[in-house]
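Hey team,

Sharing the DUF4031 domain-containing protein run so nobody has to redo it. Sequence (92 residues) first:
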Amino acid sequence: MSVLIDPPNWPGPRGLLWSHLVSDTSLEELHAFAALLGVPERAFDRDHYDVPETVHQRAVALGAEPVSSRELLSRLIAAGLRRRRRREPASD
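Structure output:
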């Protein structure tokens, strides 16, 4: 299993810090792990799940590999799973 999680460094809702949960293997693996972790589908955003700091330790205990945010992004790109937000065309 190649599920990765970065440190909870991102400010978010409810005054919590948030992490990104990704797979460097497949989105199917990521969705299965998120379900095991009890993360709702609405937390999925293109190529990752946003998870609160309260879930980080449990994710690691279930097998997620803790990595830096930079390594997480690098491995996601290398796996070809990075899905960038589409830009809206400029209107004149």
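The chain has three helices and six strands.

Ping me if you want the raw files.
A.
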